[in-house]
Amino acid sequence: MRKLLLAFAALLGLAAAMPAAAQTEPRPVIILVHGAFAGSSSWAGVIKRLQKSGYRVIAAANALRSVKTDAAPISALVHSINGPVVLVGHSYGGPVITAAAEGNTNVKALVFVSAFAPEAGETSLGLSGKYPGSTLGDTLISVPLQDGVQDLYVDTAKFHQQFAGDVSDAVAATMAATQRPVTNVALGEATVTPTWKTIPNYAIYGTADRNIPPEAMKFMYARSHSKKTVIIQGASHSIMVSHPAEVASLIETAASR
């Protein structure tokens, strides 16, 4: 009994000697932000894998109205979390998480999933045209709103080939029918603070992306000094739908470092 008590006391002493952060630091909360022409359900395969690994996941709604107004509620959500956060953005969600991270010191990492990572003064529209390869403009249908603002949709007849070429016909048809429109204002709004300069960032994209040219993403992620960049051969812009395991794996890497 005396030996048992001594061993127990030694274990208690070891635990007390461990750094407080090692004992109490919680796992990061993963916040997923969809981009234009998509929705929170596009993260379903990624969410399933992250939750299986024990992460708390929030697929935040993105209004797709303007970078500033879209980032505000996500920034507030991050601020409300008592612990580290990993922000993940797809496509136009890249500029949104870049803005939402500003002033939130609990953002541990940014993960760009086939996403724009803009410098100050750059826009999604400008970056998509920086290199040849985007065919998005030829597929868009505009719906006038007011004061020159337009809602932009991808023509449902062209959606599969343009947006999700590596998913099944049935999945692409559902994605086309449920797509969320983005305003022309949002795509033309410049980034103010490129928080990826001070926050560790990670990236994944496909070589068959028709929305954002792969060369543009290669340029952006080299410029951002991405800690890890994963390139999937033949993957479309909807890489989180067609390759959820690879996307989830990269997010877990960002969360664990």
Task: Map the helices and strands.
Layout: H1 2-17, H2 20-24, E1 29-33, H3 44-52, E2 57-60, H4 67-80, E3 85-90, H5 93-100, E4 107-113, H6 124-128, E5 140-144, E6 150-154, H7 156-163, H8 169-178, E7 182-183, H9 184-187, E8 201-206, H10 214-223, E9 228-232, H11 239-242, H12 244-256
Parallel strand pairs: 1-2, 1-3, 3-4, 4-8, 8-9
Antiparallel strand pairs: 5-6, 6-7
Helix pairs in contact: 3-12, 4-5, 7-8
Number of strands: 9
CATH class: Alpha Beta
The helix tally amounts to: 12
Largest sheet: 6 strands, parallel
Strand content: 15-25%
The helical percent reads 40-55%
Give Rg in angstroms: 20 Å
Note the overall shape.
globular
Explain what you see.
The longest helix has 16 residues, at 2-17. The protein has one domain: Alpha/Beta hydrolase fold, catalytic domain (Rossmann fold). It has 257 residues and is an alpha/beta fold. The termini are far apart. The strands form 2 sheets. It has a 6-stranded parallel β-sheet with strand order 2-1-3-4-8-9, with helices on both faces. It has a 3-stranded antiparallel β-sheet with strand order 5-6-7. Strand 8, helix 10 and strand 9 (228-232) form a beta-alpha-beta unit. The chain is 41% helix and 18% strand. The chain is globular. The protein contains 12 helices and 9 strands. Helix 3 crosses helix 12, helix 4 crosses helix 5 (93-100) and helix 7 (156-163) crosses helix 8 (169-178). It has helices at 2-17, 20-24, 44-52, 67-80, 93-100, 124-128, 156-163, 169-178, 184-187, 214-223, 239-242, 244-256; strands at 29-33, 57-60, 85-90, 107-113, 140-144, 150-154, 182-183, 201-206, 228-232. Mean pLDDT is 93; it is low at 3-23.
